[in-house]
Amino acid sequence: MNTLTPIDVPARDDSAERIALLTSVAEQVLEMCKARGATQSEVDCSESSGLTATVRMGEAETVESNRDRGVSLTVYFGQRKGTASTGDLAEESLQATVEQACAIAKYTETDPASGLADADLMAKDIRDFDLWHPTHYDADAFVAEAIACEAAGRAFDKRITNSDGCTMAASSAVGVYANSHGFIGTERDTGYTLACALIAGEGEAMQREGWYTTAIRRDALESAQSVGERAASEAVARLSPRSLPTGAMPVVFSPEMARGLIGAFLGAVSGSALYREASFLLDHAGKPVFPSWVDILETPHVPGGFRSTSFDAEGVATRESAIVAGGVLQRYLLGSYSARKLGLTSTGNAGGVHNLRVNANAPDLKSILQDTPRCFLVTSLMGQGVNMITGDYSRGAAGFLVENGEIAYAVDGITIAGNLKTMFQEMDAISADFDPRSHLHVGAIRVPSMTVAGNAA
Description:
By secondary structure, the chain is α+β, with helices and mostly antiparallel strands. Helices cover 24% and strands 34% of the residues. It contains 9 helices and 17 strands. The strands form 3 sheets. Strands 3-2-1-4-5-6 form a 6-stranded antiparallel beta sheet. Strands 7-12-13-14-17 form a 5-stranded mixed barrel. Strand 4 and strand 5 (184-200) form a beta hairpin. The N and C termini lie far apart (52 Å). 42% of the residues are buried. Residues 246-454 form the Metalloprotease TldD/E C-terminal domain.
């Protein structure tokens, strides 16, 4: 392997200076907008850097370093809106960007719902949630870790015949959001990921599978050996798959797949879907949508949480609150625009949700499987077969047939179908062993009956 030149971030933590610079730029841009007659304005300034090393079959394939900087601004002239952006912080570039946004606003239609979020909703307390853990980026070290990970996987089982590559990546970002209400919010975060994908078997019998670890701190990643070995075991487990006979049966979604179900629910209760009347949960606030034992709590202020923040993308203060309590939908997910369209108030969800926790009624996935005489365990989903207007759900799936709590054989080439509204209401088990690699904490979910379409006799 050739020696690679290290690509580094500064050894000294200069995030405070970078945030101070971006804050100064934000204030300067807001003054420019005001001078040009804008009635309201907002600006988002960010700077990020990262390093990604990818290897395959023991050799480095790519090493990429990136450093990006951007300023995005929006101006309002009454209820006419204009947006522009630039990556250049020079004053003449900022001036030109402001002029472009103002020119755009003059040609847009008046929209009664446009404008900044209400001033009294702005966050007053900007807290640190322990999301900043920068390290020295060394390309040689990243390549070595990726090679070690892939090697551990390839050595784990003789049935591992090839590799689809292993990647070690790190990133850091600082940002400032400010608006003409006088709000200024700053954030900084880091992220690290190690991912490996391996191939088991040969010819048409090959199966590809992988595993990854991700964390805010580099020392919180799973070891290279454990990631490689997990990727190998996942690939080997997929060998010799069969189909299933068409019919109805219990379906258990692994924690990784269960996140997608909850994600579909979040999409259905988001403001943009609701005001467009493109949701199967339209007008469901205050109504049961899950069994009475299900609670879904948003927790934006968890130290070390992937999506922890004091304010949303519009500066609105975030707060811990239930989205679902006792199975009943308590509120929608709203930014200021969708809230006005619906005649409601922003819930601090401009830009998405911030750390969700779904409660459980089973200790772990194993206990759910043992409690189900025969079921299909979903570990992989394909396709985009979700109709958000009707809730109809049809996805290609792979996983395992489980009988009496034990895996009988791998399954591939089938389709599972149902209706999300019914699936949500009828799910009867959620495990406590959630996948920690996401801001959405939900365990495995069992739906007691779905249509499974296969070609087995």
